[in-house]
Amino acid sequence: MLTSVEADLIRVLADPLRLRVVTLLARETLCTTHLVEETGAKQTNLSNHLRVLREAGVVDTEPCGRFTYYRLRPEVIETLAGRFAELAATARATAEHNRKRACP
Question: What is the pLDDT of residues 3-32, one digit of tens each?
Fold first, then answer.
């Protein structure tokens, strides 16, 4: 069973723009200006998505003059990936042993 924190992370990452941002940040630390250029999103919309990612603990910020840089926190993604790997292993074992609940 997924924890509420893991379920919240899935919800946060389910948004296509946030997932795109996470993908970009996996490759390099970027500021909002870079992310606007890469995604084509409006700055205010992107800032709202970055706030959601920051509040969920997916990204860290680093002020640099008048810019704010965003960095992906890989351990958060690794934790979620580990839970999905556990689910896949359970599903594989279930399929291999043909486990199914009898209907009443």
Answer: 888 888 999 999 999 999 999 999 999 999
Query: Which structure tokens are listed for 23?
Result: 């993908």
Residue with tokens 């800032």: 47
Please name which of 48, 54, 102 lies closest in space to residue 76, comparing C-alpha atoms. Answer: 54
Structure tokens at 45: 């919309």
| pTM score, whole prediction | 0.84
Nearest to 39 by CA among 58, 57, 56, 16: 16
Read off the pLDDT of residues 40-79 as tens digits, 9 standing for 90 and up.
Answer: 999 999 999 999 999 999 999 999 999 999 999 999 999 9
